[in-house]
Design brief:
The chain is α+β, with helices and mostly antiparallel strands. Helices cover 15% and strands 31% of the residues. Among the domains are: 185 residues, YVTN repeat-like/Quinoprotein amine dehydrogenase (Methylamine Dehydrogenase, Chain H), CATH 2.130.10; 131 residues, YVTN repeat-like/Quinoprotein amine dehydrogenase (Methylamine Dehydrogenase, Chain H, 7 Propeller), CATH 2.130.10.10; 239 residues, YVTN repeat-like/Quinoprotein amine dehydrogenase (Methylamine Dehydrogenase, Chain H, 7 Propeller); 126 residues, DnaJ domain (Helix Hairpins), CATH 1.10.287. The radius of gyration is 46 Å and the shape is flat. It is a peripheral membrane protein.
């Protein structure tokens, strides 16, 4: 860019994708390593996934699946942290990874919807310690640059025994490596502040080096155009900066720019075709875009993009995957804590989306390697052939042959067969590249499908996924409501409550009859309250259980409401027997003491099926099983390396799961082995955790903390712990561990922590999305614990699915969780399945230890007087709207008026006799006016205006009658006023032209029969015929006297 020439990319604009185009379901790891934590090919996206040890990679696709959603899966790559990764520029499915376990592995990946390979295609053992960097060569196939702690290595993957070259050892940690675009030189940046440029084929020492960096903090180096290098790092004031260097003279930089102040490393991404440079800092919400030019100014800022989430890593999508018709010149993928956000950089142009703008897209490097690693090592400098990005000039996709490629020696035969069976791409050698790579067209008009041109119809599963993607996951418990019961059921005025119980303890424990609460009184005293006696406790001292030492954990026997087991700080477990009618006096002597642990006990758990069987964990890192029948230890389990956070028996009572501070989740089969039968990575955080079996024992739910001390729920498959968590969901940030209660009847898990005010509720499913969040419950004040009662305590008439007791500082309050329903008069059998009678033992401890397995009975919660809602009588559907025929037959206001008038006529009858007033002679108008004026005056004086108004109306009616008499003689107009029909209208209705009685009668009889309702006629029309006949008869009766009078006069 110069003064007289404007760059075509100066208006490049970042566009953050909509949220429904983000890749969700991501749990990004926050690890200390030199890589960018995410890499992308034209097809796949790989990123560091959060897991203890860090050996797991997340995998997704650049484009969504057929259902419009992204599938996110995981692959266990290494036994230690994956420090860096890189996709081959010539094979979009080939991924190289390096790790702290001192190995480099090459993986032939499949689509995320398919099962990933269980073993790599190739494993290298450089033997130079921890590996930090891995980088494919830009022009040669099968050639890697590796960064160990202090030594860069050049490795030909076809020679697995040793590297091609081990470059000169650096003075400190190698922080970054970069190949020149033509593949001839390799540049490095180091913690010793040195920049080095190597020609590996000429010499092992650098051809250029200088102490150019100003800080030994993290740095990155990148080849840009021609012979220029770009570095990002920190200056002497520890401010972030970017510098441009001439690789032939590293003593001074050509240009520099200072970035925003932050402690996160600025990761550079460069596009050689456009000269655009993107800089994204870890932990930042800003991505800066610069243009690198060969003339002044060498660095010029183009845009400043503010993102919604903190950046954990960033990767650039290859040029062949861009949407060129939308003028997209660069696309990056921002890795955040919970999602991957695509950010598109577009150049505003007219006709964008309709035309291909060739000036924005010079030919770019293709996907066919220019030479092999051996040819490059022998001095070859061939360059990768460039291809056009024009949609019409891209190569057509070739259909792969149906015959499978046989496995070669470098591949494990088992792995090859598995991959071929899964439909994964295979190759003839670990790093051989297909001679023709399919490059998908980016034109909007291009379609994907079979070669025949037909688009296959979606399968039912795809349709279901599409519907679910539109509607989103839903649960019938999503509107669950929690409510504290009436105050009459509360136990109040609790004094001296112990608020500092260990993290492994639930804080208090309950059963159907009693509540046990630890007290902050010397001697480890425990108060026992009867649930049948709610109310205010007396201010005087109450009888207690004197445990003699501080209480570590305690639990009621599920099969005996009077037996309480208490673990103490003295490594002993004391079993107490509470009287049937409650504590009447202080208990000082336990029924049984279990001894065997050598240090303080963490927690205790009763067996869910066998009576008198107890398990405990201790600071001595052992887990022991006890028989209360014999009072002795019966099993000793080992294998833990640190504190045991939690234990849980499987629903069938065969297996025991533990979660430990050493970052492991373990499953034991106590009757078969003292060592764990399965082991896998657990939560990263070391603040505490809990474990519970869910989904009929198929999964383990672990509540713990991640590396950032955020509370997280993890779901593990009980059949494969080693593969890590199947799913996870963040909850919130809080210091207390979430204590889960799982209801196997509904699949609902209720969680809360000590000191919280919010109770979280989720429905768990054995399939995606695994976690469905429901409405939460908030208590008015912080609670110290929440324990739940048997299902029989629920009021099914009010659709309660769980009832618990909430412990506060001075009270114990019952809380009911209800599902809103309309027809509560019916038993909601879709909510209440037959529940397990877990409060009755299925077998004895001795029977279980001898190998027997029991099973709980089940019972229905349906009251006898309630009908299941599934058998409720079907109500006839109520029409919201009347049928259309009703509206079509509805009469107008005029029709209704006519019918009413006809009915009145019929009721009055057709009276032809003249009325008495018709024979009266009217007075002169002058006389009538004088008389009426006197009446009006008198009326106003007597009754006021109302009477005057009535007389005025009568006067108007009299004048109308007088005018009628003047027109028709002595005959009155009464008949006309009744029928309300003119002579012309009556003639039209009866279709008569002359007023003859014969014609009128004939037409009347015909029209009356035709419009009779019994033959489908209309009562309305029939009434009009009758009125027309009356009007014509009236006219005939008037005309006859007039004719006689005229004949007499003549």
């Amino acid at each position: 860019m110069n003064r007289f020439k404007t760059s075509k990319f100066k208006n490049t604009t970042p566009k953050i994708s909509k949220k429904d185009e983000w890749i969700h379901g991501v749990r990004a790891g926050s690890f200390s390593c030199q890589g960018n934590h995410i890499k992308a090919s034209s097809k796949l996206v790989a990123f560091n996934a959060e897991q203890a040890g860090g050996g797991m990679l997340g995998l997704s696709s650049v484009k969504p699946g057929s259902d419009g959603q992204w599938t996110v899966t995981q692959i266990s790559c290494h036994s230690d942290l994956v420090t860096d990764m890189d996709f081959s520029p010539f094979d979009e499915s080939l991924l190289a990874t390096c790790s702290g376990d001192e190995t480099v592995k090459l993986w032939r990946l499949c689509d995320p919807e398919q099962q990933q390979p269980s073993s790599p295609e190739l494993t290298l053992h450089p033997g130079h310690g921890r590996l930090e960097l891995v980088l494919f060569h830009p022009t040669s196939s099968g050639l890697l640059a590796l960064g160990t702690a202090k030594t860069p290595l050049i490795w030909d993957t076809s020679r697995q025994d040793e590297p091609l070259a081990a470059l000169e050892q650096h003075g400190d940690l190698v922080q970054s490596l970069s190949w020149k675009q033509d593949g001839s030189l390799l540049a490095s940046s180091c913690k010793d502040k040195m920049l080095r440029v190597f020609d590996p084929r000429a010499q092992l020492t650098p051809v250029q080096s200088a102490k150019s960096l100003q800080s030994n903090k993290d740095s990155r180096i990148l080849w840009v155009r021609d012979d220029r290098l770009l570095t990002t790092g920190f200056d002497m004031t520890r401010s972030r900066e970017v510098r441009l260097w001439d690789s032939r003279k590293l003593n001074s930089s050509l240009s520099s720019a200072t970035l925003s102040s932050s402690s996160g490393m600025a990761m550079p991404l460069f596009d050689e075709d456009t000269g655009l440079l993107l800089l994204a800092g870890t932990g930042d919400t800003v991505i800066d875009c610069f243009e690198v030019s060969s003339s002044e100014p060498l660095l010029s800022q183009v845009s400043h993009c503010l993102t919604d989430h903190l950046t954990r890593g960033v990767a650039v999508v290859p040029k062949l995957a861009l949407d060129v018709m939308s003028c997209e010149v660069m696309r990056v993928l921002q890795l955040t804590d919970s999602c991957i956000v695509p950010i598109s950089y577009q150049v505003p142009r007219k006709h964008s989306g309709q035309e291909f703008h060739e000036d924005l897209y010079p030919d770019t490097v293709g996907t066919t390697p220019a030479m092999s690693a051996e040819e490059w090592w022998q001095g070859g400098n061939q360059q990768v052939e460039k291809v056009s990005l024009h949609p019409d000039k891209q190569p057509k996709t070739k259909t792969p042959p149906a015959k499978p490629t046989p496995a070669k020696k470098e591949l494990s035969s088992d792995g090859s067969k598995e991959d071929q069976a899964r439909g994964c791409s295979t190759s003839s050698s670990p790093l051989s590249t297909p001679s023709s790579i399919a490059v998908p067209s980016r034109s909007p008009s291009s379609t994907s499908g079979n070669s025949s041109g037909f688009i296959p119809s979606p399968s039912p599963s795809q349709s279901a996924k599409a519907i679910q993607s539109m509607l989103g996951p839903s649960s019938k418990f999503r509107h669950i409501q929690g409510a504290v019961m009436h105050r009459d059921t509360h136990i109040t005025n609790i004094r001296g409550l112990n608020l500092t119980t260990p993290g492994e303890c639930d804080g208090f424990c309950v059963n159907r009859q009693r509540v046990a609460v630890p007290l902050a009184i010397s001697g480890g005293q425990i108060a026992v309250f009867e649930r049948s006696q709610p109310g205010r406790l007396p201010d005087t001292a109450l009888p207690t259980i004197q445990n003699s030492v501080n209480v570590a954990d305690f639990s009621w026997d599920p099969f005996d409401t009077c037996r309480l087991a208490v673990a103490g700080d003295d490594a002993k477990i004391r079993v107490w027997q509470v009287p049937e009618d409650g504590l009447k006096e202080t208990l000082t002597e336990p029924e049984l003491i279990l001894q065997g642990h050598t240090e303080k006990i963490y927690s205790i758990e009763f067996h869910p099926l066998a009576s008198g069987l107890l398990v405990s964990s201790s600071y001595d890192l052992s887990v022991r099983l006890w028989s209360l029948e014999s009072g002795e230890q019966v099993k000793l389990l080992t294998g833990h390396q640190d504190q045991v956070f939690g234990m849980a028996w499987s629903p069938d009572g065969k297996l025991l799961a533990t979660v430990c501070k050493d970052g492991k989740v373990r499953i034991y089969d106590p009757r078969k082995s003292t060592e764990p039968v399965q082991e896998g990575p657990g939560p990263d955080g070391h603040r505490g955790a809990r474990v519970v079996w869910v989904c009929d024992g198929k999964y383990l739910l672990v509540s713990g903390f991640d590396s950032r001390s955020e509370r997280v729920l993890y779901l593990y498959s009980a059949d494969c712990l080693s593969s890590g968590a199947t799913a996870s969901t963040p909850v919130n940030v809080s210091p207390s561990t979430l204590i889960p209660f799982y209801d196997p009847d509904t699949g609902v898990v209720i969680l809360t922590g000590k000191g919280d005010t919010r109770v979280h509720i989720y429905e768990l499913t054995p399939e995606e999305p695994y976690f469905i969040e429901c409405s939460s419950f908030n208590s008015p004040e912080p609670h110290k614990g929440l324990a739940f009662l048997p299902k029989t305590e629920c009021n099914v008439r009010d659709v309660e699915i769980a009832v618990g007791l909430m412990l506060t500082k001075t009270t114990i309050e019952p809380v009911a969780f209800k599902v809103p329903r309309v027809k509560k008069e019916f038993f909601q059998d879709d909510v209440y399945s037959d529940t397990t009678v877990w409060w009755e033992p299925a077998l004895t401890a001795s029977a279980w230890l001898s190998g027997s397995n029991g099973q709980h009975k089940k019972m229905s919660l349906k009251p006898k007087d309630m009908t299941p809602v599934s058998e409720a009588p079907k109500e006839a559907p109520v029409r919201k709207y009347l049928p259309s025929s009703v509206y079509l037959e509805e009469k107008t206001d005029e029709q209704k008026k006519e019918e009413l008038l006809s009915a009145m006529v019929a009721k009055l009858g057709n009276m032809d006799d003249p009325l008495p007033q018709d024979s009266f002679e009217g007075v002169d108008e002058d006389e009538w006016a004088k008389y009426l004026a006197q009446i009006i005056v008198m009326g106003v004086q007597v009754v006021g205006r109302a009477f005057a108004r009535a007389l005025q109306q009568e006067y108007a009616a009299s004048q109308a009658a007088a005018r009628a008499r003047g027109r028709t003689g002595q005959q009155s107009a009464a008949a006309s006023s009744i029928t309300g029909m003119s002579l012309q209208e009556a003639q039209q209705i009866l279709n008569v032209s002359t007023l003859t009685p014969e014609e009128i009668q004939k037409n009347y009889e015909h029209l009356f029969k035709v419009n009779d309702k019994s033959v489908g006629g209309s009562f309305y029309l029939q009434s009009k015929v009758v009125r027309a006949k009356e009007r014509l008869d009236e006219e005939l009766s008037i005309q006859t006297p007039q004719e006689k009078q005229q004949s007499t006069e003549t």
